[in-house]
């Protein structure tokens, strides 16, 4: 298996193995989680995620923060108000208890800040070599208020694409924290729970059509998912993509396109054109949304494709990555 | 008629295939038959030309000879089949009506430069087409760029919008006329016309559009000129201010601009011109020819900064002739686009995209259907080597000595994309499409494939593609349904392309040197020695691998390759290097990236070795166009220098240790040796190393034919040295002359491989 990098290969893995095996009406692995309607008119949102980051601790956070934020954000992207989460730990024999304690404290801190409670869990210790330090799996549930609907089906040409903040911070922070590059840069992961920011957005722009957090594979990958699900074009403007200068510099040094770098604490939103201004203003009021920007537009053409308008006026295709990006220039 | 005569009488049914429609073939057959006293008929159908001739046996024989030897200029007679039948006693020779049929197998000729007859009329004040910018006849004019469908007929061209006047219609119908069935025939009364529009206010400029355009050029203005395959940008080549303004507005830093010269004498004043170059310049294809520039050439420095060559072409449309004639000296004629985008070819697109560049637009109301760039060729060792095969060449098929059992589509590479369709023994190699990452270009790739499928009635059953998973051409192929897919490794395709170019099947010792391509082991290849035949290859040797710190960034910034090679050559003890001092803030980080392998893929690319040396000796640290560092390194070569750096060629596994060349170059640099001599010794050393490697393969395989392909072999110094050395050692050397050695030739190789594999099924 070489499916770690996200993008097309992991999408193929998911649909060929798991959709095949678990086929049922509620299964929505291609989204962020399942939506289970309740008699009250509300729906229950249910999502799960595993966390295998290396190193476990990096500037701006740890695997503990990620484990909470990841699941909270997945629920938020479904329009849910997350309430409870579970946590399961796979621990390699010999893993320092102090470190485990710190990570648990990080989780508690993250849960507190997000307004969710960790209500159940499980622990397994496996022999040395059977796991790489620590893996955490979280699951979460939340309620989607009656009448709230977010779906690619609602997206129309002319809708605007918003991004809640700068891109690439998390991926670059983790990459540099691995330490084998000896690159000095003050880059912190942006890991955060965005449920509050999402509520702010939905209050200001009830027309919001679609939300997705650009984690693995970055903004480039989620925009491709959007383009494929809607069979519409997503035209992004390169000059409007918010990237911190230090992140851009690290990306340049490594030859990495920040559009494919992971984020934890950002989302992409599609909003009706008439509510775009209000949405942007509301996001920028919020501490997590100060760098929010309109980054593009939904268009009729190129159907099913993401195009990036470059500074010179051309349009570069931003495709789903199949695997690790390798240069294509002959 | 006496019985004697009757016995001598014979009738033959004839079929002619090739490019025989829309080129004056039937009138030619008519006059040939009449001249020989033969009776019968001639006509067109979906396969080409059919005829029956009746008369004396020796006259019929002369007729069959004449079909080939006296055919019109634009005709390409591929096959003539003749079958004797019973005489019917016909009395005259007629041209019969065209026959439609279900199967189509006719060929469309390429766009062709204005012929001498039309040129004479163009400048004859007494002619009714005097100074008419759209004059043409069966021997010349637009073809591929205006064809919208087949059969080739005026209604299936963008000339459909212009009904012929009575006089034109008369010429069109008269078998004795030079314009008999010339589909784009027209005149000032019935054909397209020019308008000159000022960008600032969008208004038409009064007066003669050509003369007003020439006046604007003389004033140093930039004019967008609608040509055959798209819009060009024209500017006075002698005005540095004007050319520099064009560079700034086009966002094109260094890549040379092409020039159009009014005549050969003007070319000779700028460049060294040999007989082959002259023949190529004046050929009906009229490509841009790369010529060695004279030291005293009167050309603005910004035309081709730091380049020893100029790309020159002669006028090929009546409009160009008028402009060049009135202007009287060279002008820049470069593609109408911003940076690396595809050239604008519709009026709306041109207005939208070129408004920020051009001061005025010289437009016409004849539409261009197929965007087609100018072709570019270089003459090497007395042979034309295509660099870009497009206008004037396309869509004439490349015929091969083997049959394709099933129709093939080959999707080409990512940059400089060219696709092809193959059927029977013919390969229809497309025009230059461009870099697929650009959305507009990707669209012209998919619509171009559709257009070719319809034009040549090819419905591919087999689709060949590159192995690079991120090439958009690969992704296109993988999404097709109901076809057999054949993945062809990039460098296998390069060598196969060279084989097909030479109508050979191998096995040969292939030397594939380029920027890079995806290898079967998932690393990036590009300095490969491959024992190759069409059906397969064995990687027997290659350049020793290095890292590319920052992946694609290492391609844009050759100084990173300098760092990677320095690390490979010296390890921890890298000496003090000028290139390191120029990049102090990033040098150590880039070394760490190279050492760690994170975001630093492994490559055996020859192009990257050139990049490293170019940066190490201070020629270029960052490129503005593909291959720039290598091009400039080649340009710096001191031609008199025969010294060569030693380079270890490890026999088993066969590895060329490029770090030896790097160390030697740095030693010379340290001792103050002139960069021109360093560049020469590097080229010579690499050529010797390749020969040594090829010699190792000959010992093991007894093969003694070598095929050279890949973009690096656009480097004439390396190619020339290598061919000399190989031939001196008794090798037979195959090089390109029909398709480019760069990725523009890849699709022909892919098709040849797919066809060969299909034959073994
Ligand atoms: Fe190549
Ligand atoms: Mg999830
Ligand atoms: Zn003519
Ligand atoms: Zn007319």
Automatic annotation (TrEMBL), chain B:
Keywords: Hydrolase, Ligase, Metal-binding, Zinc, Zinc-finger. Residues 11-97 form the Acylphosphatase-like domain. GO terms for biological process: protein maturation. SUPFAM superfamilies: Actin-like ATPase domain, Acylphosphatase/BLUF domain-like, YrdC/RibB. Residues 207-392 form the YrdC-like domain. The keyword Zinc applies. Pfam families: Acylphosphatase, HypF_C, HypF_C_2, Sua5_yciO_yrdC, zf-HYPF. It comes from Carbonactinospora thermoautotrophica. The lineage of its organism: Bacteria, Bacillati, Actinomycetota, Actinomycetes, Kitasatosporales. PROSITE patterns: ACYLPHOSPHATASE_1, ACYLPHOSPHATASE_3, YRDC. The active site is at 26, 44. Pathway: Protein modification; [NiFe] hydrogenase maturation. Belongs to the carbamoyltransferase HypF family. It catalyses: an acyl phosphate + H2O = a carboxylate + phosphate + H(+); C-terminal L-cysteinyl-[HypE protein] + carbamoyl phosphate + ATP + H2O = C-terminal S-carboxamide-L-cysteinyl-[HypE protein] + AMP + phosphate + diphosphate + H(+). InterPro entries: Acylphosphatase-like_dom (IPR001792), Acylphosphatase-like_dom_sf (IPR036046), Acylphosphatase_CS (IPR017968), ATPase_NBD (IPR043129), Carbamoyltrans_HypF-like (IPR051060), Carbamoyltransferase_HypF (IPR004421), DHBP_synth_RibB-like_a/b_dom (IPR017945), HypF_C (IPR041440). Its EC number is 6.2.-.-. This is Carbamoyltransferase. GO terms for molecular function: acylphosphatase activity; carboxyl- or carbamoyltransferase activity; double-stranded RNA binding; ligase activity; zinc ion binding. It comes from the Bacteria. It is an enzyme of class 6 (ligase).
